[in-house]
Design goal:
Four Helix Bundle (Hemerythrin (Met), subunit A); elongated; 87% helix; 6 helices
Length: 141
Amino acid sequence: MRANIKKYQNINVESGINAGDPHTIISMLFDGIFQSISVAKGAIERKDFATKSIQLNKSMSILRSLQDSLDMESEPQISKNFYELYAYCIDRLTDVSVSLDLSKLDDVVTLLKPLADAWKEISAADKDAGLALLKAKKVAS
């Protein structure tokens, strides 16, 4: 049964990525962070340190991907703030890896959840405008 669920999740992720919509991909990255943190939390509670390490590393990799996706040229101050937020979250997750302090996982979720929720609430018109700006920027480069 777990194998079937895993296959479904992989197909769901692949179909979302294949959609190519940057907004959808960023939303999926946030979902991936929250899922990995949840699994890491359970692993820590069960003293399954191998799974904890895998999941925390996955969360940190996703945060690095979010850092890499920032457009430092268009909005340098906003991008810098997000970069620092993601760096702080990576530091917290690194601390958890050693300390096993579950409250630090909760801190990361508390910091990122409003951002993820706001991202998902972006209107279709704003998404379209953002995509148009991306296309224009690609043409200009």
